[in-house]
Amino acid sequence: MRWFVPLLYPFSLLYDLGTRLRNRMFDVGLKKSIEFSIPTIVVGNLSMGGTGKTPFVELLIRLFSEKYQICTLSRGYGRTTKGFILANKNATASQIGDEPFQIYSKFGDKINVAVGEERILAIPEIIAQKPETEVVILDDAFQHRYVKGDLNIMLTTYQKPFFEDKVVPLGTLREAKVGARRAGVIIVTKCPSDMANDSKRRLSLEIKKNNPQVKVIFAGLKYGNPIDIGYSSKINFQNVILVSGIADNSLFKKEVKKQYQVVKEFTFSDHHHYKINDVKKIVEFMKDWPDSVILTTEKDAVKLKAPIFREYLEEIAIFALPIEVNLSEEDLLWLEKSVSKVIKDKGYIREI
């Protein structure tokens, strides 16, 4: 134990008491949760981040974008703007946030993407501006209890499940683990491909101590082939320079090192706003490794593609490593049926 840890206990206790009081006020009706006529699917977690929310939202988009008119909604963490914004072809990562921009870049021809700090104001804006919308997916809104979701999907990682964590600043939980009782389904993310059934049973038992009736699903990650996002035609994956600014890059690094020779790692904080000096440092290092390529995450790629960096990176080979959530066929079918049932049971009639 580090010497300063005992000093954090009073702050963690105060934060815990504050969030418990807030949740209690919602539970008894002193604070109001608004239920909208349009179906709402909430995706979130109890921790500060790094559970794989964006890949899971992308999974939902792949599952349902052919059946329903979808709009995703998040606060747009880290953006330089405020208020409600509906993404369009002129949107940038700095305007709407890196994760919403990643989703828009990949699915903007199939769905709508919106950001807004106050979801109870943003949802009516979505309905007004995009009346064809049939379902709203709220990204990172598990603690945003002013909106009553029709299905609350909570994510927690295999590496650090919520029941082994502590409330900030002692740990990474935004609220006490009892908050898991609001979830309709809990997804254990980033599971190893060879996860034993005994481990699944143990985790399920621990999870259900906080929510006995909840459905528990175990999800892994699958990595695609690197996608060229650069301006150079030079391709040599013998030597790789890793660039990442995500909450937890440990699995990303592990996957890359299984396949490539990593000669340098540039690690930044989550939602890092890249500056010209950051890019210059990377380019300067690459002078000693002229045959190397930059390999980064999709989340970082959308920021590195900004026009401001083009003159520095136009001779550089840059690739993004895509990731997707990997579910068993049985769990995928359960998820598809459950979400479809929630949407159909709502009986929403589009306002067109």
UniProtKB/TrEMBL annotation:
Pathway: Glycolipid biosynthesis; lipid IV(A) biosynthesis; lipid IV(A) from (3R)-3-hydroxytetradecanoyl-[acyl-carrier-protein] and UDP-N-acetyl-alpha-D-glucosamine: step 6/6. One of its GO terms (cellular component) is plasma membrane. ATP binds at residues 47-54. It comes from the Bacteria. The keyword Transmembrane does not apply. It is an enzyme of class 2 (transferase). GO terms for molecular function: ATP binding; lipid-A 4'-kinase activity. Keywords: ATP-binding, Kinase, Lipid A biosynthesis, Lipid biosynthesis, Lipid metabolism, Nucleotide-binding, Transferase. It catalyses: a lipid A disaccharide + ATP = a lipid IVA + ADP + H(+). Its EC number is 2.7.1.130. Pfam families: LpxK. GO terms for biological process: lipid A biosynthetic process; lipopolysaccharide core region biosynthetic process. Coiled coil: none annotated. Belongs to the LpxK family. Transfers the gamma-phosphate of ATP to the 4'-position of a tetraacyldisaccharide 1-phosphate intermediate (termed DS-1-P) to form tetraacyldisaccharide 1,4'-bis-phosphate (lipid IVA). PANTHER family: TETRAACYLDISACCHARIDE 4'-KINASE (PTHR42724), TETRAACYLDISACCHARIDE 4'-KINASE, MITOCHONDRIAL-RELATED (PTHR42724:SF1). NCBIfam families: lpxK. This is Tetraacyldisaccharide 4'-kinase.
